Amino acid sequence: VCDRGFPHDFSTFSSEISTATSKCDCIDMSSIRIGGVLSDPDLGEFWKPVWEAAKTAAADSGVSLLLDPLERPDNDFETEHTKTAEKVRSLCQEGVDGLFTSIKSQEIADAVQYCLDLNVPVISLNSGLQWSQSLGLTQHASQVEYVSGYGAGKRMIEAGMKTAYCVRFFLDDDLYDRCNGFRDAIDDLSAGETTFVTDMAPHQGWDSKQSFKSHVEETIALEGDWDGIGILLVSDVFVDEALFLK
Q1: Which of 45, 76, 86, 145 could form a disulfide linkage to 174, CB 3.0–4.6 angstroms apart?
Q2: CA–CA distance from 69 to each of 47, 65, 131, 192, 217 (Å)?
């Protein structure tokens, strides 16, 4: 049996397994290079456990992990998507043995196809289920966005929501799916007692925490008690500010 450097105790395995002869050449795990292209973990709490999990998996298996923070200048998501696509192509050109990324746009999907054409295996995570399926990737690690939005709607209806808003912070097909699930839950489960008002999308003015707060309050435009109003945030951006809306 090849020693692949895993920090585990194999002494409890049966003698039949432990003395088996491998029919494959042993692989030096340290020679395997895995590339990752993800958002900078300092941009929000969401990505930090993903980064830690990737680093832990690489350390446990003994592979080399090429994972650098991907900056997002001034919350410019289109630029981030372009930088993601460029980094994906660059890693595959360098000859990584595998790659993982979040497929948030057609531009990134095209870069993933480029890697597949070079016979570099790719898995996707978080965003991009539909692209993952169309590209024929072996695995997509994520929640199903529509189902998560639907579940959020169900729980908020049960909590007494009567008027509903969905807030997206950037143009991403997965976030449309979350809002669509939220809206459908209201149609299916509220017996007409909850009204879906609008899907708030980002615009030029959403360049600060205060402008986000002002825009949401102006859209809802309700003085006095906000009892019964439900707001689904489909990203962790501006969560703290949302807690202090009227």
Answers
A1: 145
A2: 11, 13, 23, 46, 34
Rounded Cα distance, 90 and 183, in Å: 40
Chain segment 97-126, per-residue pLDDT in tens: 999 999 988 999 999 999 999 999 999 998
232: CATH: 3.40.50.2300
Place of tokens 């595998």: 98
How many domains does the chain contain in total?
2
Find out whether 70 and 53 touch, Cβ atoms under 8 Å. no
Express as a percent the part of the chain with pLDDT over 70.
Answer: 76
Give the model's confidence band at 180: pLDDT under 50 very low, under 70 low, under 90 confident, else very high.
Answer: very high
The CA-atom distances, in angstroms, between 146 and each of 38, 54, 118, 141, 188 are 22, 26, 32, 15, 14
Is 32 contained in some domain?
A: yes
Range of the domain at 52: 27-141
Q: Are residues 199 and 213 in the same domain?
A: yes
